[in-house]
Design a protein that fits this description.
Layout lengths: L1 E6 L12 H10 L4 E8 L20 E5 L4 H9 L18 H12 L10 H14 L4 E6 L4 H12 L2 E6 L7 H4 L5 H17 L2 E4 L2 H6 L5 E3 L20 E6 L4 H20 L5 E6 L7 H4 L6 E5 L4 H9 L3 E5 L12 H9 L2 E5 L5 H8 L3 E4 L4 H16 L15 H15 L11
Parallel strand pairs: 1-2, 1-4, 2-3, 4-5, 5-6, 6-7, 8-9, 8-11, 9-10, 11-12, 12-13
Length: 435
């Protein structure tokens, strides 16, 4: 069996969506004659902790963990342990303390390419030791954090290893950098690093068409995110006397406004039609019940569920009539294809939401009859579809999706990744989309 190194900052017990792509793909790579060894952090800056995900890591996979200084340690030392580390956003409120504003300023105006770069020294040493002790035919780096790709660049230069740079999100055009006025020098250096990685990697893999197009020229292909069918085999939909709409995920600054706007639409729909059996649930957005939000939507039943184990989240997705998807309203957002979208698809629950026109997410939904996304101002079209689905449910009609979605299941996606590794190591060549 051939072996490859996967260098990833996020790995169990890290929870949330950032860990899911490669946790799932590595599970199936051995089916295609590739055995991964994982280089990851022991004490990283994780947005959530979900120890149940450790059970999904095969005992055949070697995991090498490295200690590292973290931005969280600095952040909490200076601002206190109660202060939450920024994740998915670099915006700071006007009433924040002077010290906090200084820390955010350092993060946005001095650190290149991201705060996780402090891990690179330790990850490179661990990868170097693994290479000297074993035979690896390729290395894969996955970002964000995109600083991880610099490790692959250095390993390729020093040891001549075949290298794949995996982009789950854009680099210089990632959504949370679009709201920040970074100085010219740091943006210039960031673009140089991005170009160097994309041009030097033996293969650059992106999860969507728009991300691929917005990266510099290089040997690129698309391998989308996926859902793991094993996560759903024992989950059976059970109708309830309420029409359940759910949103999974954090309410970052660039997403919160749009989520609340769609909630206003739904509440208005319930009031206009004298409907009292619509239930809306936020999952993972708030630790405590947000009373200020509940009061804004008096005509629907509102639930708040804090962050929970991955398997429980998927159960909540299955036990729903509609899942709400909101693509952040920022520049270059047509290519945002969250892992959550594919797990929504795996649940077979109908997906509704708001997104930019011509989004890659809508193309995926169209292909698998999995749902409909509307422009941020298309309230009437959104509510027309909601009305249709609600009436079908009222009449006991099945609104679950029965389309075959095997092409976006992890076993299939893993086979495409195995083909990429075979290609760059001069074996069987195949890739979904080439540029």
């Amino acid at each position: 069996m051939k072996k490859f190194l996967l260098i990833t900052y996020y790995w169990p017990p890290c929870g949330g969506v950032s860990v899911q792509r490669w946790l799932s793909i590595t599970k199936y790579m051995m089916m295609y004659d590739w055995l991964p060894t994982i280089i990851t952090t022991e004490n990283g800056d994780y947005p959530y902790i979900d120890k149940t995900l450790n059970k999904k890591v095969s005992s055949e996979i070697k995991v090498i963990r490295t200690k590292t200084p973290t931005f969280r340690q600095i952040f909490n030392y200076l601002l206190g342990k109660e202060e939450k580390l920024p994740y998915g956003s670099l915006e700071v409120s006007p009433d924040a303390s002077f010290l906090k504003k200084i820390l955010y300023l350092i993060r946005t105006q001095i650190i290149i390419p991201d705060a996780r770069v402090i891990w690179n020294h330790y990850a490179f040493k661990a990868a170097e030791n693994a290479i000297l002790r074993g035979m690896y035919e390729a290395v894969i780096t996955t970002g964000p954090p995109h600083s991880t790709h610099l490790i692959g660049l250095k390993l390729q230069s020093k040891y001549g290893l075949k290298w794949v740079a995996d982009f789950r999100d854009p680099w210089t055009k990632i959504y949370y950098l679009q709201s920040e006025k970074r100085n010219f020098f740091i943006k210039y250096i960031d673009k140089i690093l991005e170009s160097k990685v994309v041009q030097k990697a033996d293969k650059v893999v992106t999860v969507s068409e728009h991300i691929q197009q917005n990266l510099p020229k290089g040997n690129k292909c698309i391998i989308s995110n996926s859902y793991d069918p094993d996560d759903f085999y024992d989950k059976i939909y059970e109708p309830k006397p309420v029409f359940r709409i759910k949103f999974v995920g954090a309410l970052t600054d660039s997403r919160k406004k749009e989520v609340l706007k769609t909630l206003f639409w739904i509440d208005d729909f319930a009031q206009t039609n004298n409907i009292y059996d619509i239930e809306f649930t936020l999952i993972g957005a708030f630790e405590e019940q947000p009373l200020d939000i509940i009061r804004k939507f008096p005509h629907i039943r509102f639930n708040n569920l804090p962050f929970m184990e991955h398997k429980k989240v998927l159960e909540e997705c299955v036990q729903s009539e509609i899942l709400l998807l909101v693509i952040n309203k920022v520049q270059y957002n047509q290519g945002i294809l969250t892992y959550k979208l594919f797990e929504y698809i795996g649940s077979q629950t109908y997906i509704m939401g708001v997104a930019p026109n011509n989004s890659d997410a809508q193309k995926i939904l169209n292909k698998y009859n999995a749902g409909e996304l509307y422009n941020y101002e298309e309230k009437d079209l959104f509510l027309n579809k909601l009305n249709m689905l609600y009436n079908k449910w009222k009449n006991n009609e099945n609104i679950k999706n029965k389309t075959d979605c095997t092409e976006v299941s992890t076993p299939h996606i893993s086979s495409l990744y195995a083909d990429v590794l075979n290609e760059i190591t001069e074996r069987k060549a195949y890739c979904d989309i080439k540029e």
